[in-house]
Amino acid sequence: MAATSWEESVKSLKGVILDMCGVLYDAGEDGGSPIPGSVEAVKRLKASDLQLRFCTNETQATREVFVAKLQRMGFDISVCEVFSPAPAAVAVLKERGLRPHLLVYDGVVPEFDSVEKTNPNCVVIGDAAEKFSYQNLNDAFRVLIALEKPVLFSLGRGKYYKEDDGLKLDVGVYMKALEYACDVEAEVIGKPDPMFFQKVLDDMGIQSHQVGFKNKSSANTFI
Amino acid sequence: MAATSWEESVKSLKGVILDMCGVLYDAGEDGGSPIPGSVEAVKRLKASDLQLRFCTNETQATREVFVAKLQRMGFDISVCEVFSPAPAAVAVLKERGLRPHLLVYDGVVPEFDSVEKTNPNCVVIGDAAEKFSYQNLNDAFRVLIALEKPVLFSLGRGKYYKEDDGLKLDVGVYMKALEYACDVEAEVIGKPDPMFFQKVLDDMGIQSHQVGFKNKSSANTFI
């Protein structure tokens, strides 16, 4: 593709997916702060005839809580426009008739309310933070190893992130631990994996060549 | 090599290394029980002109505590004949002037008494069991990631083991987690890695072709 400006590219597109952290807001104390100009940019995109969706690997809060934070920052954004790993996982679980054993942060558990969880036949891990205890990891492992063919979903594959009190190991690290323990490859649901983006495209009803994606490390990326 | 009996092979050898769990004793409640005939077999080997050493991946107790258990079972065995990962790691740390941050079981910490541990420039993990907490893993990770070239030692690469209350994840699983987090390959000290066996050979002053090795899955294995 010949080099084109962001505005010119947008004209030929049917939809845009915006990453959130680093694009709309910067993480930090008190939930972070909006990046200058981003509230106005979202407004302009909404006024266009482009479809707009947002994606995040946030797995410590429900979308409701997360979106409320963005709204307080001034963003015109609603829950149904936001794609995070947990609801994408719920869709996959239901499609495949899977009942998860959850090892996720308490704040995101309600996203899984509609999923049958008795007699689990797979494991879903998210960034569980303090819940990544020795006991909880053993419990998740025992569910996996008791299955004829272990099925492990990981909500993202991040290695670590920074919080005010220092670096913290992210979900990808615990994914690797369980992969090794069970000789299994996890199915990753979240950026940057194709299965996750496909769910967003499905929702917009468009193809991958018709969408633009912007994250903090790309001025203008097309999937 | 032509097929030979265990006894015939032993005649041409200068030393024997015996694995312990599954060869001398079976694990179980109250520390396990001796395998019938094994106390007598150790006695016969000691009466021969072969050098004899024992090896184990035990990393939850010091050799003193572990050997005392075997002595109570009736084995003629002393601490200096037993090679476990912790003292092998101590030797490697001293050779290379490394100061470890330890993430190991409390019972094995005394093995590292002679090693300088301030201002750590590497991490050593063993089967830390309940000490594999989110906080302790983050702490070990922060030491590694702050190093220009992270150095990680793992006392074994086991995936899991069984205890009375169920399966437990072993050190190898947490090794994989930290490897992924830091883009580093751990140096494994313990069976079945060559560095570990080399320490045993060095102690006997013999070469690998001069030693026989017996573990629970091999009637007669030569390194």
Itemize the secondary structure elements and their pairings.
The structure is a homodimer of 223-residue chains.
Chain A: H1 6-11, E1 15-19, E2 25-26, E3 33-34, H2 38-47, E4 51-55, H3 63-72, E5 82-83, H4 85-95, E6 100-103, E7 122-125, H5 134-145, E8 152-154, E9 160-163, E10 166-169, H6 171-182, E11 187-188, H7 194-204, E12 211-215, E13 218-222
Parallel strand pairs in A: 1-4, 1-12, 4-5, 6-7, 7-8, 8-11
Antiparallel strand pairs in A: 2-3, 9-10, 12-13
Cofactor (chains A, B): Mg(2+)
Family (chains A, B): Belongs to the HAD-like hydrolase superfamily.
Pfam families (chains A, B): Hydrolase_6
CATH architecture of the largest domain in chain A: 3-Layer(aba) Sandwich
CATH topology of the largest domain in chain A: Rossmann fold
| Order of strands, widest sheet of chain A | 5-4-1-12-13
Pair of chains with the largest interface and how many residues each contributes? A-B, 27 and 27 residues
pLDDT average of chain A, as an integer?
Answer: 89
Q: Give the H and E element order of chain A.
A: HEEEHEHEHEEHEEEHEHEE
Determine Rg of chain A (CA atoms, Å). 18 Å
- The parts of chain A where pLDDT drops under 50 for at least 5 residues are none
The major sheet of chain A is characterized as: 5 strands, mixed
Q: What is the general shape of chain A?
A: globular
EC number (chains A, B): 3.6.1.1
Enzyme class (chains A, B): hydrolase
Cofactor (chains A, B): Mg(2+)
Subcellular location (chains A, B): Cytoplasm; Nucleus
